[in-house]
Write a structure and sequence with these properties.
Length: about 180
């Protein structure tokens, strides 16, 4: 009996992105999911859940034979894109970062099921940098030091690089970085 059951299980293939999906805050994000099976189906059910670390998974939406049943709290944010099991998140917020779980059930001569997890990271675009000089006059000739401070208001994974005449500056006797 066990070998027969294992054979049935492998009949449903669920394909999801293999790496973390990066989306941009405020933009829509498409989670592409495909499934196929080699069985006769009377019903196809798709369920989407969302989990943040240290919290229980939340139901987002589900469908049976393409009739979608959303969680009313999220019905305007999450959309199922038939005929496959893809999910559209619109708009994407920082709080949407986490794991999305898709489960597909196919009922025919018995039920076969498969589920997969997709990790989503949300990136915030970097704002225009502000540069301040100390002393503020910016004119220091032959004596003294000048400090240039660069800051950005928002942005994930911000990296700073100073350049002079189009060439990267490196630490040395004339330049120190902090």
């Amino acid at each position: 009996f066990f070998h027969f059951y294992a054979g049935i299980c492998s009949a449903l293939k669920l394909t999801v992105p293999s790496h973390t999906i990066h989306g941009i805050e405020g933009q829509p994000l498409h989670l592409s999911v495909d499934y196929n099976f080699n069985a006769t189906a009377s019903e196809i059910q798709i369920i989407w859940l969302f989990e943040r670390s240290q919290s229980n998974p939340k139901y987002l939406l589900g469908s049976v034979n393409q009739r979608v049943v959303p969680d009313l709290e999220y019905q305007h944010k999450f959309t199922l894109i038939p005929p496959n099991a893809s999910l559209r998140i619109d708009p994407l917020h920082l709080s949407d970062e986490g794991n999305y779980i898709v489960k597909v059930n196919v009922r025919g001569n018995g039920t076969i099921a498969a589920s997969q997890k997709i990790q989503v990271a949300v990136d915030v675009p970097v704002t225009k940098p502000d540069v301040h000089t100390e002393p503020s006059s910016g004119v220091v000739e032959y004596v003294g030091n000048i400090t240039l401070k660069c800051t950005v208001d928002r942005g994930t994974r911000v990296a700073y690089q100073w350049m002079k005449n189009g060439k990267h500056l490196h630490a040395g006797p004339n330049y120190t970085f902090s």
